[in-house]
Amino acid sequence: MKTSAGFTLIELMLVVAIIAVIAGIAIPQLVRSRAGANESNAIAALRTISQAQTAFRDNYRRYGQLQELDDDDPPYIAEELADGEKQGYKFVTAAVTKFEYQCVATPIVPGKTGTRSFCVDESASIYEGTCASGTPIE
């Protein structure tokens, strides 16, 4: 009588199939939750930018570009944010004048690092989409 130690090919194929099914279910959910976390971080970064713009305006009587917000000692915002990218989102200041500004956050890889764009302006309101036609978040 033979005794075998180990697994048969069918048993191994069954285990691989089960692992593939579990991965097929878990990975898309992981990507969605990661994108949601990136969106929350983008909104928080826009709040930081809004507060920094207000402090910058109080000191210089105008609004500044992202790089300018990092130039002071101490800086108004972190260097990573001033470079324009943070946690899957790209940040760009636009329409900066003495009395108004807009900062737009867009996903670097749409659908993967985030699905929505956000905007903040001198009113400190954060919008989903663009500032002019977006939906206010707060």
* Overall pLDDT level: 89
Structural class: alpha+beta
What separation lies between the terminal Cα atoms? 75 Å
Total count of strands: 6
Report the order of strands and helices: HHHEEEEEE
Assess the beta-strand content as a share of residues: 15-25%
Helix content range of the residues, please?
A: 40-55%
Please summarize the sheet with the most strands: 6 strands, antiparallel
Form type:
elongated
- Count of alpha/pi helices: 3
Radius of gyration: 23 Å
Textual characterization of the structure:
This protein is an alpha+beta fold and 138 residues long. It is built from three helices and six strands. It has helices at residues 9-60, 66-71, 79-82; strands at residues 85-86, 89-94, 102-107, 118-121, 126-128, 135-136. Strands 1-2-3-4-5-6 form a six-stranded antiparallel β-sheet. Strand 4 and strand 5 (126-128) form a beta hairpin.
Short characterization:
The chain has 138 residues and is of the alpha+beta class.
Keywords:
alpha+beta; elongated; six-stranded antiparallel beta sheet; 138 residues; 3 helices
Which SSEs are present, and which pair or pack?
Elements (H helix, E strand, L loop, with lengths): L8 H52 L5 H6 L7 H4 L2 E2 L2 E6 L7 E6 L10 E4 L4 E3 L6 E2 L2
